[in-house]
Specification:
832 residues, mainly alpha, Rossmann fold, Serine Threonine Protein Phosphatase 5, Tetratricopeptide repeat, five-stranded parallel β-sheet, 3% strand, transcription regulation
């Protein structure tokens, strides 16, 4: 990003404000380029006109300016460099230069590169008053003129937080970025209290701090923002009251934040750019007349006092910044569990700030650092990740300090797990429903307390975040056991608690990103596509606000997009999906649906069946793979393999409403129309039936009534119920009899997709159409047993080349190209 690019990006915004006024002042520290930008903006609005330019760099220039004001005969531009104290005198001269403050004789534009906000009544003197906030680089501008990384909204947030969006700092920061190749310098924003690495941005911030610090030393409330930045006005007021030993109101904090060096990057709270804040703290600590050491002691007292309105997450960050390790260890002893709500970049930043050699005396810091680095291992990997993280962190806290909710849940969890049979999906579902009832009871009490107390303290907000985290884990458990309606209810309760308890993405980014991503997945999975799109957009907004991107929420958003009929996107390879990852079954299913629509039933069947083969070696419980069993059962029914479809219902992992739909699909293929209608009516009467399975059920009913004795208006009503083109994955699961009327209604473009075609040749051979010789069947059985061609040749007493030739002929008859596909096809056709 070149210097000229910054000026060119800022000037149009300024030109709009200057184009229709006679008097204006633009004042900001020189790092905002107020004079250069004003000059460029006037060129854009006026061209090379007759405006007189007066430059003031020294006290001797003020007299020349006074003469220009007295004798002004045309438009005037005043370029004022420094001389902060004398600026008010200039402004009084400007006021006196016109007959009337509102209708001047000639246009006067003042562009002042000053650190101190003028004390005069600017609104009385000028039509437009613009400060530093009008000259910052915002996220959209950075995306347009920034480097390649700027396409990521999370990276833009971090870059703007480090630099405050200040043009000079941002320019220097991006030059440092070029010099460091792939190193992500935006991580400096979580290095609380650490000076930036040497470079152009550190030099620019140091020069600014040298110039500004003498003035800020007389404004303690402003200077405190270098210690506790980007926190809300009430929090800042509470902390400042402790440090300054007098009552500070939020209104005073608001006035202090008018200082030109304090910016608001994005939607976060105002504060010094982190590059500048680090340098100001450094100067405070070496200044013998500075109250910095006193402030540090009082800041420690404030963080130890639970009556100060500061959440534990903020306490942990501030204690890290002032490097008070003993108090940080004590805070973690009671509040370590709040780290579960942190996003990954915050976790890694804290771990880095704590160092890699934690003394043995600070046991809680050492335990928490292991968690932050992700080197811990859960004792029960089959439980939802939010629960595992909370349980692990609570185990590291002092027993007497354990959060009451976590203590109760842990006791009930241990009792439930002691009687649980992991191979029984019904046991697991009963356990999940009992855990949900416990959490629902806590939610009711918590919301009642929220209603009673209008003023909520920071501890209440922290407790709300923990409860929402438990509910998010509960939603994961419900999703794993196919209780989708209960999962949506848990996320709904969590959202209600967050909304009523001031839990937001700024304070609890990991929690809020996780909730938005899970809502998007559930909406996509249940065919609520418009709702899924809204959640995906909301997730993008939260990323832009928090500057965080966590691996698991990103995975969930990709799954949600795939469920949302994003068929054109490039699919993942099987190597890119780990069968041990949470939500792997959903990701495999979503990719399988895309294959089903675009390439037909055979590739989808092979994809899903291959992952089921790998599932037996994964850490997930067998019943968590129910999405694959349900999809495969529908494909079996569609292709006429009715026995296979029925067999997939035997392990009980597919819930009752889905099992009824699969049975209805089998009955439709057999032509039992009345049975189909009866089964569908039972499905539609169940409150737990999701939108996608309700749509499939209606599609089966459409197949039962089409061409039957029922009036045409029933078929028409079913077709009008849904936008079938929005759920092609569901349409592709329907048997021909149901899919045909849907495709006639949605139009030709969809009928040409491989997985939706009805009249064209199928991609899957029927059992009767494929005949193998006895020798080919023997080879196929050998492949199914995992034998090599050489071993099969030895067992059959034949030559290896003969077996190789036999295998190639067998592949051709089955319509496949490799041994894995041949085995799957043979199993599907009942040959082995």
């Amino acid at each position: 990003m070149e210097h000229v690019d910054v000026i060119s990006a800022l000037a149009p915004r300024l030109a709009v404000s200057l184009g229709m006024v006679d008097r204006a002042i633009i004042h900001a520290p020189q790092e905002f380029f107020p004079i250069e930008t004003t000059r460029r903006a006037l060129e854009q609005t006026e061209g090379p006109g007759p405006r007189t330019v007066v430059t003031v760099r020294a006290a001797s220039d003020v007299e020349s300016l006074a003469a220009a004001l007295r004798d002004q005969s045309g438009p005037l531009l005043v370029e004022w460099y420094g001389l902060d104290e004398q600026l008010d005198e200039l402004l009084q001269a400007v006021l006196a230069a016109g007959d009337c403050t509102r209708v001047p004789q000639h246009s006067i534009i003042v562009a002042a590169a000053v650190d101190r906000r003028p004390g005069a009544d600017l609104d009385a003197m000028f039509d437009v008053v613009l400060g530093s906030s009008s000259l910052v680089i915002d996220s959209q501008t950075l995306a347009e003129i920034g480097p390649a990384q700027a396409v990521d909204s999370a990276w833009r947030f971090r870059a703007l937080r480090v630099t405050g969006g200040v043009p000079a700092l941002l320019e220097a920061f991006l030059l440092d970025l070029d010099a460091h190749d792939d190193r992500d310098l935006t991580q400096q924003w979580v290095r609380m209290g650490a000076l930036p690495a040497p470079g152009r941005s550190a030099d620019a911030a140091a020069a600014w701090a040298d110039r500004a610090y003498p003035r800020l030393a007389d404004e303690p409330l402003v200077l405190l923002h270098a210690w506790a930045y980007f926190i809300s006005e009430p929090m800042m007021a509470g902390i400042s009251s402790y440090l300054l030993n007098r009552r500070i109101t939020p209104a005073e904090v608001r006035r202090a934040r008018l200082n030109g060096a304090i910016t608001r990057p994005g939607t976060s709270e105002p504060g010094f750019p982190i590059l500048l804040a680090a340098q100001l703290v450094e100067r405070m600590m070496i200044d013998p007349d500075s109250p910095a050491r006193l402030w540090r002691r009082r800041l420690r007292m404030a963080m130890a006092d639970r009556t100060v309105p500061v959440p534990d997450a903020v306490r942990i960050c501030i204690l890290t910044m002032i490097r008070d390790w003993s108090l940080l260890d004590r805070v973690l002893a009671a509040s370590m569990h709040i780290l579960a709500t942190f996003a990954s970049n915050e976790r890694l930043g804290l771990a880095d700030a704590w160092g890699d050699q934690v003394p043995a005396v600070w046991t809680h810091i050492a335990y928490a650092r292991e968690f932050l680095l992700g080197t811990w291992r859960p004792n029960a990997p089959f439980l939802p990740l939010p629960w595992l993280e909370l349980a692990h962190l609570v185990d590291g806290e002092d027993e007497q300090s354990v959060h009451p909710l976590i203590k109760e849940l842990r006791g009930r969890l241990a009792l439930g797990l002691s009687t649980l049979r992991p191979d029984s999906v019904e046991d697991v579902r009963r356990f999940a429903l009992s855990a949900e009832s416990v959490l629902t009871e806590h939610v009711s009490r918590h919301l009642e307390a929220c209603t009673r107390h209008r003023r909520l303290d920071a501890r209440f907000t922290d407790d709300s975040a923990v409860l929402a985290m438990c509910l998010m884990g509960m939603a994961d458990g419900m999703l794993f056991t196919a209780l989708l309606s209960d999962a949506q209810a848990c996320l709904g309760m969590a959202a209600s608690i967050c909304a009523r308890s001031r839990v937001d993405v700024v304070g609890y980014p990991g929690l809020m990103l996780g909730m938005a991503a899970r809502n998007a997945v559930l909406s996509g999975k249940t065919a609520l596509h418009e709702q899924a799109r809204l959640y995906i957009e909301e997730y993008g907004r939260l990323v832009a606000i928090s500057g965080s991107r966590d691996e698991l929420p990103e995975q969930l958003i990709r799954i949600a997009s795939r469920y949302g009929e994003d068929w054109d996107a490039d699919g993942l390879s099987s190597a890119e999906i780990s069968p041990n990852a949470p939500f792997a079954p959903l990701q495999v299913e979503a990719e399988g649906w895309a294959l089903l629509v675009n390439r037909g039933t055979l590739p989808a069947y092979q994809w899903l069946q291959a992952f089921l083969g790998r599932a037996r070696w994964s850490d997930l419980w067998p019943f968590e793979w129910w999405p694959l069993h349900a999809t495969l059962a529908m494909i079996d029914a569609r292709e006429g393999r009715l026995h296979e479809a029925q067999r997939r219902l035997e392990d009980g992992s597919i819930p009752s409403e889905m099992a009824l739909v699969i049975r209805a699909s089998v009955e439709l293929v057999q032509g039992h129309r009345e049975t189909v209608r009866a089964l569908v009516d039972r499905v539609l009467a169940m409150s737990t039936t999701t939108s996608r399975w309700r749509m499939i059920a209606y599609g089966l009913k459409l197949g039962a009534v089409a061409g039957g004795p029922d009036p045409d208006d029933l078929a028409g009503m079913i077709l009008r119920l849904y936008d079938w083109s929005e759920a092609l994955g569901a349409v592709a699961l329907l048997p021909d009899a149901a899919r045909r009327p849907v495709l006639e209604a949605v139009g030709r473009p969809y009928r040409e997709l491989a997985g939706l075609r009805v009249d064209g040749p199928g991609d899957w051979p029927s059992a009767g159409a494929v005949r193998l010789t006895p020798r080919q069947v023997d080879v196929l059985r050998g492949l199914a047993e995992g034998k090599t061609l050489g071993r099969i040749a030895t067992d059959l007493g034949l030559g290896k080349e003969t077996i190789r030739s036999t295998a190639k002929q067998m592949y051709k008859r089955l319509g496949v190209h490799d041994r894995a596909s041949a085995v799957l096809m043979g199993q599907a056709l009942g040959m082995i």
